[in-house]
Amino acid sequence: MTWFNSGVAFFFLLCAVGLGPQLGWPRAFAIIGSCALYGVYFGGLSRVVRRGWFHPAISWINVCLETGAGVWLFAYDIIFADAEQALSNPAAVLWSTLIVLAALRSKRLALFAGCIVAAEMLLLYFFVALPRLPPPVPVMFSPPLMVQRAVYYVITGGMAALVAGHLTRKAEEALHAIRAKDLLGKYFLHERLGVGGMAEVFRATYSPEGGFEKVVAVKRILPAYAEDEDFVTLFRREAELGSLLNHPNIIQVLDVGRFADTYFMAMEHIEGMSLRELLKLHGPLPPAVVAYIGAELGEALDYVHRRTSSNGVLLRLVHRDVNPPNILLSRIGEVKLGDFGVARAATHVGITQANRVRGKLGYLAPEQVRGESFDGRADLFALGVTLHEALTGHSLFKGVDISERVKPTPPPSLLPPSAFRPDVPPELDAAIMELLQWRSEDRTPRGQRLRERLCGLTGAHAPYPHGQQALARLIQETLVLKAEPAAPPNEVPETASPPQARCDEESTAVLRVGNKGPVEPPALRVGQGGREE
Fold it and tell me: What is the DSSP string of 443-492?
């Protein structure tokens, strides 16, 4: 504002120079001198303020100086012309403008400016102009009308203050609404990465005091479900378990809390995509990439299954939801397991009781589908289904009836990856089929055992370094492809699904077991990618 005032003062200085012959040079020089003083003052003040110095009293002093410009114009008209010209000059318009200008700074300054202008006008009228008016005094310049004009200035200051207060409140309300939408405590939300049935995930910036910033992923419950006790319990369990797990192949949970009317969780942000997205955009993956993903997830699951409490007691955690949407891949080839919302610890030694089974039907181990007790080997079975899908490009149990999954023998569709891809090496083929053993006692016992088998692959199929490098290259290429505008998809007619329940990789269900009751409606959740599972 100070630099603007300085510029206006020098503009009127130039105008006075140009109009000197018409105004008369004595009057023009008086105006030029006043404008020069104003220009120098506000120009110097602008430089001082830019250097960081400011005092609250300056605003009040500036209002006095600004309104004083009308006093100088009035005085020059009295001195170099007459009282009638002074009372009819444009000072009234200038004073009204200065009152509004003061309102832009604060409400109190607007009221102050209105009162100052009214006082200046009355003093100039009664002590300078009125004694110089020849009788009879025109009605428009009579004392009652001039007092009324002064009252108008005071009212103008009050109205400007009201308008400024209203605009300030509306601006604060709008800012509050934006912050409530885009700010969760110290987390500033950016674009939404995805949304599911009950939660949504955003890329966010963690911005505490001191200028420190960190990019994170914020997962928050949709407000409509913030009061759903069951979902909030699952949400908090995911956060609590995530805080217990500290492994390079597991998504790190950084914070959990409640803001306004919803719960949120801050997690490690992975710049990349989920395995499901990669398979959807790229198709089947090279054997070395699948071997690398399997080795990394085998180590992650081994850590989860062997995690102990602070007092050294084995927690016997089971993830229970290992599938492509919950496996995140970074652009530098990192593999991360996330979404521990349905993970749980054993209540009896050696097993996890499964009186209520959650997870994707297409990835559940046979013992889970049957409602029997299960342990970490159920996660390894789900990993086997996932790796099989990564090699072949289609879900292993898609279209298989539930009745086939509960039988003691595997369905005919359970074929090795090499039956669909002859280029799959025998060692990788055998490792995956060992994960998919129908009886849990015949299955790979530990994730570490799977990692050792996969690390035994050599040549072009070796997970390290070939698989890791190939995965990073695939992710980067696929991210570029994903950023390109897609062509309009062809119309595909919908086909009626069979009435009986199916095990499908896109179906998330909760099975009640024990009484072998019906399947409940899908329980939707989101991983870091925010997609429905």
Answer: S---HHHHHHHHHT--GGG-IIIIIHHHHHHHHHHHHHHHHSPPPPPPP-
Which residue do the tokens 């074929």 mark? 415
pTM: predicted TM-score of the whole model, two decimal places: 0.60
What is residue 23's predicted lDDT score, i.e. its pLDDT? 79
Omega before residue 465 within 30° of 0, cis: yes
pLDDT (tens digit per residue) in 106-151? 888 889 988 998 998 899 889 888 888 888 888 888 899 989 989 9
- Which pLDDT value is given to residue 528? 41
Strand intervals (E) in 21-165 = none
In this predicted structure, what is the pLDDT of residue 210?
61
Cα Rg of the chain, angstroms: 38
CATH among 1.10.510.10, 1.20.58.760, 3.40.50.2300, 3.10.50.40 for 272-481+501-512 = 1.10.510.10
**Pairwise pLDDT comparison (356 vs 41), residue with the higher score:** 41
User: Is the Cα torsion angle 480, 485, 487, 492 positive or negative in sign?
Assistant: positive
Question: Mean pLDDT, to the nearest integer, of 341-358?
Answer: 48
What gap in Å lies between CA 418 and CA 429, rounded to an integer? 6
Q: Give the residue-averaged pLDDT of 219-247.
A: 82
Quote the CA–CA distance of 260 and 434 in Å, as a whole number: 49
User: What's the CATH fold of domain 182-268?
Assistant: Phosphorylase Kinase; domain 1 (3.30.200)
Q: Is the pLDDT of residue 511 over 70?
A: no
Per the CB < 8 A criterion, the answer to whether 378 and 365 are in contact is yes
Chain CA centroid to CA 449, Å: 40
Catalytic residues: 321
The CA distance from 78 to 71, in Å, is 11
Three-state SS for 192?
strand
Integer Cα distance of 367 and 377 in angstroms: 10
Strand 272-274 vs strand 335-337: parallel, antiparallel, or unpaired? unpaired
Token representation of residue 71: 């006093």
- Concatenate the DSSP letters of all residues of 139-158 into one string: GGGSHHHHHHHHHHHHHHHH
The gap between the terminal CA atoms of the chain, to the nearest Å, is 56
Residue 299's alpha-carbon distances to 236, 292, 446, in angstroms, are 25, 11, 9
Matching CATH topology for 182-268 and 272-481+501-512?
no
d(CA 279, CA 293): 13
**Is residue 464 predicted with pLDDT exceeding 90?**
yes
Q: Is 80 exceeded by the pLDDT of residue 252?
A: yes
SS3 286: coil
Q: What is the pLDDT of residues 2-24, one digit of tens each?
A: 677 778 878 878 888 888 888 78
Residue 270 token pair? 């992975």
What's the pLDDT at 179? 53
For residue 350, pLDDT over 50 is answered with: no
- Per-domain boundaries in the chain: 2-156, 182-268, 272-481+501-512
